[in-house]
Amino acid sequence: MKYDVLIEKAIEAREAAYTPYSHFKVGAAVLTEDGSIYSGCNVENASFGATNCAERTAIFKAVSEGHRVIKAIAVIGDTKAYTYPCGICRQVMLEFAENKDIPVIIIKNKKEFITKTLDEIIPGSFTKKDLDQA
Ligand code: THU
């Protein structure tokens, strides 16, 4: 399928997860406007609040390399169930998503995944547009 490589990159990225506290490894990958892919893992910290989720690691890597437009995102957790992105990551996705209909691919394994639009997982959202209209 169209997002095979994105899915593979998210699965690969999970291997680098730094999770001495939760032992819950997450991997993510984002597709940017020019077709390049950035991946990331969760990076935990002894001060738990300093932990960075996999999705945000991937997004921040893309943005810090000059890619501000995200066309798709894939994420995989560490259980037999599907791991949905946390609320903070959904908000960060909105900031850089090409539009609210980009696919968020929630992966169980290479062959089993669910595709939702960003709008489906964070409806009624607050974005830069709200501020621009103020
Ligand atoms: N985690 C992610 O990386 N992404 C999510 O969307 C959910 C949570 C990580 C953060 C922490 O390292 C571990 O999973 C347990 O919360």
TrEMBL record:
The keyword Metal-binding applies. Residues 1-129 form the CMP/dCMP-type deaminase domain. Pfam families: dCMP_cyt_deam_1. InterPro entries: APOBEC/CMP_deaminase_Zn-bd (IPR016192), CMP_dCMP_dom (IPR002125), Cyt/Deoxycyt_deaminase (IPR050202), Cyt_deam_tetra (IPR006262), Cytidine_deaminase-like (IPR016193). Its EC number is 3.5.4.5. It catalyses: cytidine + H2O + H(+) = uridine + NH4(+); 2'-deoxycytidine + H2O + H(+) = 2'-deoxyuridine + NH4(+). Keywords: Hydrolase, Metal-binding, Zinc. GO terms for molecular function: cytidine deaminase activity; identical protein binding; zinc ion binding. GO terms for biological process: nucleobase-containing small molecule metabolic process; pyrimidine-containing compound metabolic process. Zn(2+) binds at C53, C86, C89. PROSITE patterns: CYT_DCMP_DEAMINASES_1, CYT_DCMP_DEAMINASES_2. The active site is at E55 (proton donor). GO terms for cellular component: cytosol. Its cofactor is Zn(2+). The keyword Hydrolase applies. Belongs to the cytidine and deoxycytidylate deaminase family. This enzyme scavenges exogenous and endogenous cytidine and 2'-deoxycytidine for UMP synthesis. This is Cytidine deaminase. It comes from Clostridium cadaveris. The lineage of its organism: Bacteria, Bacillati, Bacillota, Clostridia, Eubacteriales.
